[in-house]
Amino acid sequence: MDAHLRETQKDSQQVYDGDFLKVQRDTVTLPDGKEAVREYIKHPGAVTVLPLFDDGTVLMERQFRYPLGRVFIEFPAGKIDPGEDELACAKRELLEETGYTATDWQHICTIHNAIAYADERLELYVARGLQEGERKLDEGEFLDIYKAPLSELIEQVRTGRITDVKTVIGTFWLEKIVNGQWTPSASSSPAA
After folding, report:
1. What pLDDT score was predicted for residue 190?
2. Which reaction does it catalyse (predicted)?
3. Hey, what CATH class is 46-178 in?
């Protein structure tokens, strides 16, 4: 159907093999028969958790992000380990970063946040029935957690205080869900 748009890989070379990210440089044949080079980041995928309390507030994080040199407001999130189930990853990240567990999980959507230069995907989940516990931060991980009204997050997106793409999209999803405009298409409950 989209053959007139497809690029075909002719050659592929890994040019960087890091602990977390890998960089590929591929030669491709364009739809017009010419060749081009595509450089992109290989990413294992990640989850983002939208922790929603019964009173409508949301559990958020503040974390320093080195590439941009500042603290960002974000939802809990993390990398999917090799062979790890996405929902299991979401539960693990929520517990590790915030200390919370949840009794109700709903998959919201998949987003691709950097399609021009990375294959990364993020799986977004709403977590409800939140129960507080003890955080288990990874070594070298430093972040603050706090509760915020959804209206405050929406305003922070509007004013540009929240710019992290997963958090912007997650905030809009939560607004639609809380207002009854959108319903997640899939749901699952955590295993006992």
Report:
1. 44
2. GDP-alpha-D-mannose + H2O = alpha-D-mannose 1-phosphate + GMP + 2 H(+)
3. alpha beta
